[in-house]
Amino acid sequence: MNDIITVERVSKTYGGGIHALRDVTLAVRRGELTAITGRSGSGKSTLLNIITGIDRPSGGLVVIDGAAPASMSERELAVWRGKTVGVVFQFFQLLPTLTVLENVVLPMDFCDVWPRAERAARAMKLLERVGIADQAQKFPSALSGGQQQRAAIARALANDPPLLVADEPTGNLDSQNARAIFDLFQELAASGKTIVIVTHETEFTDVFDATFEMHDGAATCAHVS
Fold first, then answer.
1. Which of 15, 82, 152, 188 is deepest in the core (most CB within 10 A)?
2. Is the pLDDT of residue 89 over 90?
3. Is residue 210 classed as helix, strand or coil in its secondary structure?
4. What is 31-54+69-224's CATH number?
């Protein structure tokens, strides 16, 4: 199957009759770099939370790499998410009391995917891949915003998940660092990773294979290459 994400007629309703998502249907192809765009409050982050299993839909079907996260228990979800989805946040979410290297090792410790003796070496290779191996022994506070986001991407790759999702990953960065991060995502997609990015950025549309625009909880396919 070429689609790694299938969303069929998904809705999400909160108390008070708030419709965050309305009958959303979309598919994301394996190995592509996809954007979800739209104004604040349009449903972008809600959709991302449902794709990652952080939230559950009120109706409809979500299948991620052959699995239906909405049907899982919380324990099953935690294990599935740790192995299947790498998450990159706007504010990095690196643990301040751990070194950059230790932050990247942490998901491997949590999911116990890699042999313990190999984890530090794998973390170093990932930091090399994102261009900040020389920052490995520093604490996050000693890094620039762009470097912290690269560390967060390395951490998201720790368990070699087939899917990476990023929620406004360049919202805290200047334009030069933002371009560098989008270039890195493009390189990762070219190597076989599927990446879905929620973004307000409009100047980097050239890097995306597909774009879905959210408006009042509904999704429209704005571009597919």
1. 152
2. no
3. strand
4. 3.40.50.300
